[in-house]
Task: structure prediction
Amino acid sequence: MSTLLPRLIFILNLIMVFNVYTQETQNNKTIHIENPKKGLWHGKKKVLFQEVLCIGQDDEHYLAIPFNVVTDDKQNIYISDYGENYVKIFNSHGKFLRQIGGSGQGPGEITNIGKGLAILNQENIICLCDEYKGFGTELEFYKTDGEFIKSVKLNFGAWDMIASKTLPRLYLAQRVRMFLGSERLEKLNNFGSDPHFVIHAYDLNGNLINRFCEFDIVETGNQKYQSEFSYITLLSDGNLAVTHNYPYKISIFNAEGIHEKTITRKNDLFKKLEVQKEIKGVPGGNFAVFEFSSPATVKEIFSLPRNMFIVQIDTKNKDRRYIYDIYSNDGTFLLSFWEMKKIIHIDALGQFYEREYTIEGIPVIRKYKFNIVNI
Result:
């Protein structure tokens, strides 16, 4: 009995240690949420749109090539105009307030404005990506009254950008438009940036804080495909959501870049990739670069009120172009709907912004109220 008790205590301690270790390991694992084809609200709810504003129809504030829209905490509307390299600012009712930038190479001028546009509300700062300025990319900072502050050089192009709501921090999605053959990924990256990560976090001085979210490499036959680009959004719970254009996947990270969830959904549109074209003689080396075709690709992602987000899928179908999938922040698929509208922004009130051309060919930005109602 005297020897049995110590052995029993030793075994119990081992069990306790094993349980603690198992729990910690589980806590460090990424949760994978696979959703069915039909959402929780399928057949119970539907989506309604109501147009409330149109910007760009009058000659005085004509939009040449509107590219992106963001809004601040006062619901002012900031439109990046690719055609004239301006950021044009309107109030929530569509009244023109001011414009920032203009074509040029100097301070406060823009060479090639892209999609990267963000508002740092706490600092009252506008940040934009000026691509190809001096054969590189710059982050340019302006006060919201239009005064130029500074520019910071980047070593890569940014496809998408968002600002933290609580920290002086910017999250940029690396712009990579390369498709891989069998060669090393490191030799095909864009602007010499780290080829393994999609998201880069910077402070307002241009210092790299963190980088995370590895690129997807998808094999098809004897070739490999690199995800073309990703979009990002900041969810209402403070987490970052990142899309991958193929396969259908949303990655959820916390503010420090820890991968917490992977969300997928069964969708028949995402079929096996097929090689469309082979290009040889890529600058920088003798590489075989392949372009692939998929019937559908995941595009943008936006946060919604009431702890939800929405994912945009391009079906490449001219009659029923876009599918929008609505999720709760915990990863539960709720509802899917078809729309011809290409949504480019959703504000804090849940209002949708669309870029389109009128019958007369005039480019405009339309704002819609968006409601989910019972059927």
